[in-house]
Amino acid sequence: MTKIQTVTNAIINQGILPLYYNDDETVTIEILRSLYRAGIRAVEYTSRGEAALSNFTKMIEIRNAEMQEMLLGIGTIKNLQQAEEYYKAGADFFISPGFVVEVAEFLIPKDILYSPGCMTPTEIIEAENAGVTFIKLFPGNALGTGFMSSIKDVFPNLKFMPTGGVDTTKENIESWFKAGVSAVGMGSKLVSKELMAAKDYATIENETKKVLEIIQALK
């Protein structure tokens, strides 16, 4: 099995891709541990602060020592230089807010999953023609489930994951899966700034377990 397929399967099997960023290295690692305890085996860390690369490098180190089953992806990749830096750091997959052709050309021949954010059929077509197989619908709350329902038959060979505005309720999650997505990306609705500030790792773990249970019940 290819590495791209392995990562795709892991995300689809859990049905959710948690994503977060925190400046503090210790908080970053403890959130990773709480997600792992909840049953998560693929996580997106977003490259949104000055400490992102050093924190991610530490995440790789801790993953290798404590949780070998965890796949660590990097998000908010907007140019080739970022992709090269995180590839060297050992990222298992890459996610962008938009489609960056240079990033696709760099990663896909290396059998590394690249999931770009797309919000129009034109962008999705460009990504598919570049070899992308896993599309991030972004921003999900702006596009809505109706958009997914209306395009899914046009792209039968692609997997879709909305990110942005997806919340933790059964109703919201179910509406996306009924529309045809393969997974949902979930950031601040799951790993909120408040929980991170309070270092409330137990609640992050418990809320993640609840979401996983909802998704497994829907499958």
Automatic annotation (TrEMBL):
Keyword Nucleotide-binding among UniProt keywords: no
Pathway per the UniProt entry: Carbohydrate acid metabolism
UniProt xrefs under InterPro entries: Aldlse_KDPG_KHG (IPR000887), Aldolase_TIM (IPR013785)
Entry keyword set: Carbohydrate metabolism, Lyase
Highest taxon of the lineage: Bacteria
UniProt key word Hydrolase: no
Oligomeric and partner information: Homotrimer.
Family, per entry: Belongs to the KHG/KDPG aldolase family.
PANTHER family xref list: 2-DEHYDRO-3-DEOXY-6-PHOSPHOGALACTONATE ALDOLASE-RELATED (PTHR30246:SF1), 2-KETO-3-DEOXY-6-PHOSPHOGLUCONATE ALDOLASE (PTHR30246)
The name this protein goes by in its record: 2-dehydro-3-deoxyphosphogluconate aldolase / (4S)-4-hydroxy-2-oxoglutarate aldolase
Natural source organism: Chryseobacterium profundimaris
